[in-house]
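[Q] Does anyone have a clean structure-token version of this?
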Amino acid sequence: MDNNFDIFVDHWHQVVVIWSQILLGCSVLILMYYFIVLNMKRSLVEQYNFISTNEIKYLWYAGMSLSLTFAFFLNSSIVRVHVTRTEFILGVKTFVSLIIGLLFASAIKTYLNVYYPFRLEKRLNKLRFRSRISPKTGVEMRLLTEKEEDVHLTKEMIEHENIRAYEYDVWLDETNGEKIIEKYEVNRHLIICNECNYRTARDIKEEVVKEPSETEQGEMMKHYECSYCGHRQQKKSPIAALSTN
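[A] Here you go.
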């Protein structure tokens, strides 16, 4: 009986090692696929929109696969290194390995959802605000502010910006009037920065200034920080009266 169980444990170890290698390969392939597709995007706008829409998603797929890799590799190690005599001990070791793998995946998920977006936004801003060179004159073009660009946009484009469906950037060659209009998928939580006049200010803190009552509105102060120039600003927002909630 013990001999048969030892053979089973040995086979278990081999299978788990193989699956850990397969899952590690999947993690690498997911990342390779993402970066290959990204490098196929020719324009900065296409790269920006692709990164904004897909990077966190693909990193999470790779992270899940890596978490399973870690869990399987850990299981193979503790099964092989420490003597496993019974099915109960094997089950406990497997359960512990999966729990640790789940915690590892949870840590990756938290990082991608809470901390990584700030780093990603800075990368996206560098991509979006990188200098544009006029294809005709070779002169560096100027990015117009929100106020300046409206005369160059159609009514439909302005409406898109008003409802936060899309954001448009207008680059102008001031030597010959040539312009390039770029269309971006907008972050609905961004507002226009009072300093640089770009829509790059993110809500970083909220505090209630005045509590709402049954009949009167309250007031909330929102604090914003621009990811482009670092400027900080505040904006007051109303809180509905309790009777309307």
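[Q] Thanks! Anything notable?
[A] The mean pLDDT is 85.
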